[in-house]
Amino acid sequence: MALLELRGLRKQFGGLVAVNDIDLDLEEGEIRGLIGPNGSGKTTLFSLISGFLRPTRGKIIWRGKDITQKPAHSIVKEGIARTFQLTTLLKDMTALQNIVIGFHLHTGMGLFEQVFGGSGRRIKESAVVKKAEELLIAMGIENIKDELAGALPHGYQRELNIAVSLASNPALLLLDEPTTGMNPVETQGLMDKIMKLRDERGITIILVEHDMKAVMGTCKKITVLDFGKKIAEGTPEEVSKNEEVIEAYLGR
Amino acid sequence: MGRNPSRRVISLPIIAVVLITLPFILSRYYVDLTIVFFAHIILAVSFRLITTTGDFSLAHVPLMGMGAYTSAIISKQLGWPFWISLPLAALASTLVGLIMLYPLLRMKAFAFFIGSYAIGEALRLSWIRIGIFGCHRGISGISHPLLSIPCLGVLDFSGATPYYFLTLVITGLCLAIMYRIERSRISDSFKAIHSEESLAKSVGINVTAYRLLAFEMGTFFAGISGVLLAHYFGHIDPHQFDLTTGLYLLIWVVVGGYTTFAGPIIGVTFFTLLGELMRPLGAWMPLVYGCILIISLLFLPDGLEGLPKRLVPLIQRIRIKGGEK
Amino acid sequence: MTIHLLLQTVVNGIQLSSFYALLAIGLSLVFGVAGIANLAHGEFYMLGAYVVWLFYSLIGLNFVAAVVLAMLFVGGLGIAIERTVFKPLRGNVLGVAIISVGFLFIFQVLVGQIWGLGYPKRVDDPIMGALNIHGVTIGWQRVIVISAAVFLLVMLWLFLQRTNLGRGIRASAQDSEAAALQGISINRSSMLAMGIGSALTGAAGALMSPVSAVHPYMGHMPLLIALIVVIVGGVGNLKGTVLTAVLFGFLYTVITTFLDAVVANIASVLFMVLLLAIKPEGLAEHGT
Predict the structure, then answer these.
(1) Which of A71, A101, A116 sits opposite B203 (nearest CB)?
(2) Running DSSP on this structure, what letter comes out for residue C124?
(3) What sign has the CA pseudo-torsion C189, C190, C193, C199?
C-alpha cells in the first residue's frame, strides 16, 4: 500500500480546470519531484493534498485512510505538512518564535493548561523552546534565532519556512519551490539539507521546483504536470527524454 | 513584552492604594462614574480579545445587553440572588453568542463587521418585540446584590461604596483572567490567525475553532460587564445597547490601540477623562469623538498605546539638537 | 384580502422600491469602484434632506433647484472626504469603514447643534395632495420620488455605458491595474464615483424630505437598508442593486402591512446575515 494515493483528483474553479483527473502513488521514503510549466497545477495540487482546497472530485488516501474532506489543520495532524511559494512567516516575530508556533500540535498542553497552568506549563513551554532551537541547529540556521523573521534575507526565510513545517513532525512534507530566489550554491546547499533531513527523519517529500538541476539531482522519480494533467512520470532520464514533456516546456 | 519588572512591581501597590481609597474621597457622582469606567474596561478589553483574531464585532454591545437582560429577568422573575444570576447571565450571553457565530464564522474582516452589526441588531430588536424583555421601556427595578454571611449578617451592596468594591474586585478578576489569556499560547494562536492565516492553518491551528474560542471568551466577559451595570443602575432598556454605544466602544479601542493588552484600557481611560473634562460641551461630545477617531486613524495608526514608541525618537532628536547648541 | 388592499400594497411597494434603489445605488457605486464602505452614508442622505429644508422650506427656493443644490452639496462633500480621508486608507476596506464612523458622528452632531434637536423639521410637499385611482392612493410627492429615482438611475446607466468617463469608471472597478495601464487613473475614478454616488444619496434624502421626518438621526435606517440592498445585490453590481431594491421594497412593504415594522426590521437584518453567510465574498468583489 502506498503512503499517499491520489485517485482521479480534480479541481475546478468555475470554468477553469486547475487539476484534471490526477492519479498518483507515493511510496514511503521517496523524494518525488513535481514539475511542470507555470500554471500547470502544481501548487493547486499541494493545496488539495494539504486540505487548503477541497477537490471538485476524486480521492486522497493517506496511509489507507480517506482524508479527502479533511480541512487543513486536520491534515497537519495526520502528518502532512507544506510550505508555500511565497514566504509565509510571522514577520514581527523572531525566527525562534515562528518555530515555536510550529509546535502548536505538540506542546503537550490542553487549552486550560495553556492559560492557567503553573510550573508544569512553564516546563512544557521550555521544552518546546528547546525543541525549536534544536530544529534551527538541524537546519543549520541557528545564527538567526533571535532575528525578526520579516527582516531576514530571502534565503534564510525559505529555510525558516521549512524548519517551521518540520516542527509539526510530519511524515510527508510538501515543498513548494523552496529554492526560489536562491543562487546555484544556495540551491545545492538546500537540496543537500533536504536529503539529509529525509535520511535522518524518514520523511517522505514531494518537491515542486523550477530549477531542473535541483530536481534531477535530488529526486529519483519525477511526475510532470501540464494544464493540470499528468503527462509523464518516471526517472529523471526517462522524463527528460519524454517528448510531451519537452514540448510542454518549449511551448511556453 | 520587555517591560521593566521592578517598575511594574512598584506601581501596583500604589495603584491598589489609590483604588481602595477612591470611593471615600470622591463624590457620589464620581464613584458612579468609576463604576461605569470599570464596567467599560471589562467591555473594551474583552472586545479587544476578539480583535486579536482579526474579528471586529459590533455584536459585542448587544451581547453585553444579553447579559444585562438575562440577569435582570432572573433576579426579577425568579427572585434568584445576584451571585447566581451573574454567572448564569454570562453563560447566557455566551450561548446566544454561539448561536450568532454560526453564520458569522463564514465571514471575515469587513463582512464580519457588518454581519455582526446585523445580527446584534436582530437581537436588540427582539428585546423590543418580545414582551418579557419589556419592549421599548426595558426592565426597571433590578435589585441590588445582597450577600448573607453567616454570623456576620447581610452585606447590602446597594450603596455606591460597597458596589464600587464589588465592581473593583470583579473587574480585577476579569482582567487577571484576560491577562493570563493574553500571555498564553492561545493568544499567540489568535494573533497568528490574524497576521498570517495560511501559516496558522499549516501548523495545525483550527482557525474556525480558535475564532469561536476568542469570540466566546470575549462575550462571556461582555455579559459580566452588562450585569454589573444592570444591578447598579437598576434599569436597562434596548437603547442603551444600540449601534451608537457599539461605535463608541469601537472608538475607545481603535484610538487606544488594540495591539496590546493595555491599549483598550488606555482608550477607555482617555475617553472617560475627556468626557468629564468636556462635560460643558455636552451634545458636542460625539463630534469630538468622531474627530479624534479620524485624526487618530490618519496620524496615529497604532493608537495611543503606540505613542511612547513614537515619542521616544522624537524626544531623542530634541535632546540631540539641544546638545548641539 | 381585498383587491384594493392588494393594489395599495403593490403601489406602496413600488414607491418604497424606487426609494431603496436610489438610496442604495450610491453606496454600491462607491463600494464597487473605489472599495469604500462609507458608513456615513445615512448622514449623506440626511444632509440632502436638510439642504432641501434650508433652501426650499426656509428660504423659499424652488423645490427642484433645492434638490439639485442638495446633490451638488453632498456630492462635493463626498469628494472632499474621499480626497482627504479615504484616499490614504485605500485598500483597507475595514479601515475606511471605521474611519467613516467618525463622519457619522460629526455630521449628526453638527446638524443637531446648528438647527436643533427638538421636533423634526417639516418640509412641505411641493405638490400637495395625492393621486387617487379607484381608491388606491399615492401621494404626489411619492410619484415625484418614483419618477426622479427612475430618471436618475437611467441617467447613471447612460453615463456608465455610453460616456468615456463612465466606461473608465467601470474599467477601474473591474481591474484597476489594467485600467491604469490604459490611462484611466484609479484616483480619478474613485473621486468621480464618490462624487456621483454621494450626489445620488443626497438626492434620495432631498426627494424624501417632504415624506419623512427630517432630523439629525434620520439616516440610521437608510444606512441599514442601503447596506442590506447592496450586500444582497452584490457590491458594485448596479443591476443587482436595483433588482434587490425592488425585491426588498416589496418584501418590507408586505411584512409591514401584514405584521409590523419591527418584525420587518428583524427579517431584514436576518436576511442580510443569511446572505453574508452564504456568500461572504460578495462584499469583497468589485466590478460594475
Answers:
(1) A101
(2) -
(3) negative
The residue segments making up the domain with residue C228 are 3-283
Pick the residue of B179, B190, B202, B208 with the most A CBs within 10 A to test the interface with A by mutation: B202
Which helix (DSSP H) or strand (DSSP E) does residue A13 occupy?
Answer: strand A4-13
Q: C35 to chain B: nearest residue by CA? A: B110
Q: Does B contact C via 3+ CB–CB distances below 8 Å?
A: yes
Choose the weakest-confidence range: A47-61, A210-224, C171-185. Answer: C171-185
Domain annotation covers residue A18: yes
Residue A198 pLDDT > 70, yes or no?
A: yes
Which is nearest to C165 in space by CA: C179, C187, C184, C186?
C184
Asked whether at least 3 C-beta pairs link A and B within 8 Å, the reply is: yes
Distance separating alpha carbons of residues C78 and A15, to the nearest angstrom: 39
CATH number at residue A17: 3.40.50.300
The ipTM, to two decimals, is 0.91
**Alpha carbons within 13 A on the beta-carbon side of C186:** 20
Interface contact flag, C272 B104, Cβ < 8 Å: no
Residue of chain A nearest B207, judged by CA positions: A73
Q: Does residue A112 contact residue B246 with C-beta atoms inside 8 Å?
A: no
Q: Which of B125, B289, B298 sits opposite C105 (nearest CB)?
A: B289
Does residue A109 sit at the B interface (CB-CB below 8 Å)? yes
In whole numbers, what is the pLDDT of chain C averaged over residues?
87
Let me know if residue A236 belongs to a domain.
yes
Number of domains in chain A: 1
The residue whose grid cell reads 436582530 is B122
In chain C, residues with a C-beta closer than 8 Å to the C-beta of B251 are 101
Domain encompassing residue A72: 1-79+172-179+210-252
User: A57-62 and A65-66: which strand pairing?
Assistant: antiparallel
CATH of the domain at C169: 1.10.3470
Q: How far is B317 from chain C (nearest CA, A)?
A: 27
Q: Does B284 touch chain C (CB under 8 A)?
A: yes
C110-116: average pLDDT: 90
Using the Cβ of A125 and the Cβ atoms of chain B, whether some distance falls under 8 Å is answered with: yes
Residue B172: C-alpha distances to residues B71, B167, B178, B179, C51 (Å): 21, 8, 10, 10, 51
| DSSP H or E run through A225 | strand A221-226
Predicted pLDDT of residue B277: 92
Query: Partners for C (CB, 8 Å, 3+ pairs)?
Result: B
Task: Determine, for residues C269 and B122 on separate chains, whether the beta-carbon distance falls below 8 Å.
Answer: yes
- How far apart are the C-alpha atoms of C7 and C5, rounded to whole Å? 5
CB contact under 8 A, B203 and A164: yes
Q: What tens digit of pLDDT does each residue of B12-48 get?
A: 788 888 888 888 888 889 999 999 999 999 999 999 9
Q: How many domains are there within chain C?
A: 1
Model pTM score: 0.90
Per-residue pLDDT tens over the stretch C47-61: 999 999 999 988 888
List the single residue in A81, A115, A164 with the smallest CB-CB distance to B184.
Answer: A115
Does residue B79 come out as left (phi exceeding 0), alpha (psi in the -120 to 50 range) or beta? Answer: left
Question: And the C-alpha cell for B256?
Answer: 487606544
pLDDT range class, residue C166, cuts 50, 70, 90: confident
Q: What is the pLDDT of residue C217?
A: 92
Cβ C269–B247 below 8 Å, yes or no? Answer: no
Give all chains having 3 or more CB-to-CB distances under 8 Å with chain A. B
Q: What is the pLDDT of residues A168-184, one digit of tens each?
A: 999 999 999 998 888 88
Quote the minimal CA–CA distance from B61 to chain A in Å. 26
Cell 515555536 sits on residue: A100
Q: Is A101 on the interface with B (CB under 8 A)?
A: yes
Assess if residue A84 is contained within a domain: no
Q: B125 with B242: CB under 8 angstroms?
A: no
- Count the residues in chain B: 325
